[in-house]
Amino acid sequence: MGVCLSIRIKAVTPSHIGVSSKYVSKDGKDSSSSSSKVSSTSIPPTPRSEGEILQSTNVKSFGFSELKTATRNFRPDSVLGEGGFGSVFKGWIDEVTFTVTKPGTGLVIAVKRLNQDGFQGHKEWLAEVNYLGQLYHPNLVKLIGYCSEDEHRLLVYEFMPRGSLENHLFRRGSYFQPLSWNLRMKVALGAAKGLAFLHSAETKVIYRDFKTSNILLDSNYNAKLSDFGLAKDGPTGDKSHVSTRVMGTYGYAAPEYLATGHLTTKSDVYSFGVVLLEMISGRRSVDKNRPTGEHNLVEWAKPYLTNKRKVFRVIDARIEGQYSMLGAQTAANLALQCLSNEAKYRPNMEEVVPILEKLQDSKEVSRSTPNQNSPNSQNRSNSGPPKYRRRNGVEVANGRPVSYPRPSASPFYK
Fold first, then answer.
1. In order along the chain (414 residues), what is the average pLDDT of each group of 10 residues?
2. What is the 3-state secondary structure (H, E, C) of the chain?
3. Which of 137, 158, 179 is the last residue before a domain boundary?
4. Does some domain include residue 284?
5. Closest Cα partner for 362 from 372, 354, 352, 353?
6. Residue 85 in domain
7. Disordered: where is this region (predicted)?
């Protein structure tokens, strides 16, 4: 794309948030199905006013004092991530009643508190409530509730103990072992299912900000999409696209969207291709610390992806020996298709899902032993789920700090 920046593309959007078409209420029971489709029932078109949007959601309205208590008065040692749009705090509520409980008891939650200044932040907060308040799928982060009291704007999500995919791919150090090939393909499939659901005929939502920091992982490395502040309803009727001001993240945005502002589901497919390439290579989409000619991952990798003999130059050396030749070539070819410069040549996410499902066959994909399915398998037993405890105010799982989103790349803020 010729743009070697890693900052968020910012633009002023129209006076409304542009969410006006149908929403779908999902039963959320398809957590183990290989299909990306979930049974649905339509509900009335989304209302425009803020009051109607908040009333139409299926989430809890919290008081500010409740969330203040749940997070221990937003104490610094409860911070999971922070940035320009605000901070995310760890808290606790009762699993059934959603009332505040003592720290360490009940359901763990992540509370996003927006900064009190900035109109754009409020609009994205409202869009988040609008979408996640009515969309349900195993591969979307669950929105539990919100707070809209005086000037306070907060969002309450399910807690994702393994943090963002970005941290697992790019953070270095003894506490962050590289994800195995099998886990990378598992995460890719989960994220693909989330996008396929959003793009379905019943839902018709364009995510618009698909990137590694917005993909969160639960304790079993199941992927869930988070942060719907930039999501848009897809085109309706005979329209081929939605015209918007360009917003998103450099390195992930589709070239035609950057050039024209025309947004389609194929824009998300391109972003998926970038993320899949990041997972295959272990490289960031844009990295100025790389040698000249390697700053932009897509531009550097494409020539290798088209050559079966050279494709292995792209694959992360840290997972060498964990994949078969067929598995590596299949994943690389899928990424290449998604990264086509012309949107019409990119597959739909419904076509992407079955390809990734085939890559879940360990006999075809991986030569690694079962214990290598975990990035930390060398240092822990796989006989049970990770055990969590506190160490100097930091969450620890089996002796290793949980990889929460970094302050510079938290999926809970922009």
1. 39 32 38 39 48 74 94 90 78 93 91 74 84 92 92 92 91 77 97 96 89 94 92 76 79 93 94 98 94 94 92 93 92 97 96 95 47 40 38 40 38 35
2. CCCCCCCEECCCCCCCCCCCCCEEEECCCCCCCCCCCCCEEEECCCCCCHHHHHHHCCCEECCHHHHHHHCCCCCHHHEEEEECCEEEEEEEECCCCCCECCCCCCEEEEEEEECCCCHHHHHHHHHHHHHHCCCCCCCECCEEEEEEECCEEEEEEECCCCCEHHHHHHCCCCCCCCCCHHHHHHHHHHHHHHHHHHHCCCCCEECCCCCHHHEEECCCCCEEECCCCCCEECCCCCCCCEECCCCEECCCCCHHHHHHCEECHHHHHHHHHHHHHHHHHCCCCECCCCCCCCCEHHHHHHHHHCCCCCHHHCCCHHHCCCCCHHHHHHHHHHHHHHCCCCHHHCCCHHHHHHHHHHCCCHHHHCCCCHHHHCCCHHHCCCCCCCCEEEECCEEEECCEECCCCCCCCCCCCC
3. 158
4. yes
5. 372
6. yes
7. 22-51, 360-414
Is 414 labeled as ligand-binding?
Answer: no
Residue-level pLDDT at 83: 58
Q: Is residue 402 part of a domain?
A: no
Q: What is the spatial distance between Cα 376 and Cα 382, in angstroms, rounded to a whole number?
A: 10
Residue 116 is predicted with a pLDDT of 65
- Name the pTM for this structure: 0.77
Domain residues for the domain of 100 are 15-158
Instruction: Work out how many domains the chain is built from and give that number.
Output: 2
pLDDT at residue 308, as a whole number: 85
The reply to whether 182 and 310 lie within a common domain is yes
Q: Are 193 and 36 in contact (CB under 8 A)?
A: yes
Catalytic annotation, pick one of 209, 233, 268, 316: 209
* Strand pairing category for 143-149 and 60-61: parallel
Is the residue at 67 inside a domain? yes
- Is 209 one of the catalytic residues? yes
Residue 183's closest CA among 403, 6, 338?
403
Nearest-angstrom CA–CA distance, 110 and 91: 6
Of the candidates 158, 182, 216, which is a domain's last residue? 158
> Would you state the structure tokens that stand for residue 405, as one six-digit string?
């989103």
